[in-house]
Request: fold
Amino acid sequence: MMNNFSKLFLSIQAALLATSSLAYAADTEQQDDGKLERILVTAQKRVQNAQEVPVSISALKGDALEAMGASGQDVRYMSARIPSLTIESSFGRTFPRFYIRGLGNTDFDLNASQPVSLVYDEVVQENPILKGFPVFDVERVEVLRGPQGSLFGRNTTAGIIKFDSKRPTQEFSAYAKASYGTYGTQNLEGAIGGGLTDTLSARLSVLDQQRDDWVDNKAPGFEQNDQLEGYHDRAARLQLLWQPNSQFSALANAHYRDLDGTPRVFRANIIKSGTNDFVDGFSRDTVYQDAASRAEQSVEVKGGSLKLEYDFGTHTLTSISGYESAEAYSRADVDGGYGASYMPTMGPGFIPFTSESADGLPKHHQFTQELRLASNELGRLDYQLGLFYFDETLNIDSFNYDEAGAENGYAYQKQDTTAWAVFTSFDFDVTDDFKMTAGIRYSHDDKDFVAQREVSPAGAGPTAMLYQNPSDGQISWDVSGVYTLNADTNLYARVAKGFRAPSIQGRLLFGDEVTVADSETMISGEVGIKSDILDNRGRVNFDVFYYQVDDQQLTAVGGGANYNRLINADKSVGYGLELDSQFAITSNFLVTAGMSYNKTEIQDSGLAIAACGSGCTVTDPLDATGNAIIDGNSLPHAPKWTINMTAAYTYPLETGELFAYTDWAYRSKVNFFLYESKEYSDDYLLEGGLRAGYRWTAGSVDYEVAAYGRNITNDESITGGIDFNNLTGFVNDPRVVGVELKASFF
Reply:
């Protein structure tokens, strides 16, 4: 571990010396006098100073979001750049999997639920395809750690990630940004907004990201250069804000996404047996696949929302209606290699049997409705109460193909979900210095599920229609208090219960059962301190936490059986700490630093799962049937340590200023699966970014020209594995460097 930390700090030190300047603070702004401004958040569905909210929360905004997304990266760029947050995906850009404090879900099924909820413009994005919507023209990102069941409901046991787009205003503003980098990476982004009438304003935001295929296929008989890893991702958002008077407002939001590309590239035999190292001669830009020519991935998302607010003076009534629809299809060479029965020549990509499959989401609709009444600073007591309704319909198709690419297997899943909730929350000023918040929510979830395998690749024949109808209702709650120690320091404590609704897994191509995971519940406690120091030129927030998850929903991914299975562990526990800090060293030199420690453990003495199918060295004890006993293991993709830093320096020059920005993120060792093995893990990942340039103003236009780099040390790390065939894995993105131009109009 110490060796890993040495590498981390040496790399950061080298980057800082090379740039001679440091980057802009990730989640704060600076006043003209060099002091830090307040960070305003909506973690409790009110606009509040983050330092006064009794929740462990971090935020990203401004230059941080702009720099981290410079190379056309998707939402995964936030991984490890916020304490206790990691993000990974075996689908690539379309299906991110979020983990907070070690809690997440490795399931790759299009019906997978997650304990981390994503809320985009106040509308929950339940299906994993919706969670991959691009990040552009965003005002801020908030990460709320710990259960958020009172105000946000079910499936928030680990926490919430909130995205808030820049809203329309009466003032005219616009920007256009274009960048070009290695691998033909292009990023076009822009927005325009302002008043259309005295009462109506609008904002249109657009995004176009693309990258050329850059991975060569060298499998004998299938050679082709630049065959994989390209994409073309387009998105747009139109918002209309009508404010006929000071009491009423109506905000309409319509958004769209269209993605075409190739799926995540799986690479056979890239892990050296008995270790988690790359094999000798590994090259990130080369694969050996026999089905790469048929790889494709497409996603189309359409949605909209309407937020109505009426201020009665003492109270505000809010209605938020949301609709989302998604279609997706992804076909990949899952085994990651070539060979099997028809190709006897052994090579770097040789695999014992072929696996080419596809998943489709031909139908998906989600409707949500929230109605909320909140008091407006009545005095010592304020409150919110509301109703919530959720309705989702989805169909999933799963296909399998033979060695020649002909379809030889088909199964489908259909699920209808309805959920409703009632909730209330109270804020009470016990004294001038001590305030308490308490909330309670009742949520009810019903699912109607049917699945069937019609054609079996293994010749087992069709299954009968398989039905599941889980239903459950639970109470979630939270109690917290914040004490003002002095004008600059707040102490807080929070205890909360979260609830995750029952989940269903029906991947039937290679199995004959539909598995159901019962509801999981979580009790979490945390205490922390939030302080502004150095005459508001510094900010340090620190917390410690402990949680216990009962009946935790886990996914046994892969194994020799090549399908997913849902299970419940008796319980899992986790504890750790988190630190966020920002410092205005001078009026033009700002730094941030954050870290987290997470210790997680599965506690179920009788729980055992199937382990890897070929070439893997399992280190867990085995039961009588050869399954791995996972009691005592850490949760998958749960690093003990994450460390992040950003820093910025600006220097006045002529009529403008030079600027430089760097950001670094480190995460320690992770295991990819519930069982532990020598091969399916990664010791650490360290990635850094740099953005430097010059900005100036001419007339009513701000201009900016910059050079950028992402993963500037070109770190190569295995970020996930496929364990039912050979030692197959997938890796992080390579270094991308480029140039960027931006013009902002006002």
User: Anything to note?
Assistant: The chain is about 5% helix and 55% strand. The chain has a mean pLDDT of 91. The two ends are 50 Å apart (CA to CA). Residues 447 and 470 are 6 Å apart (CA to CA).
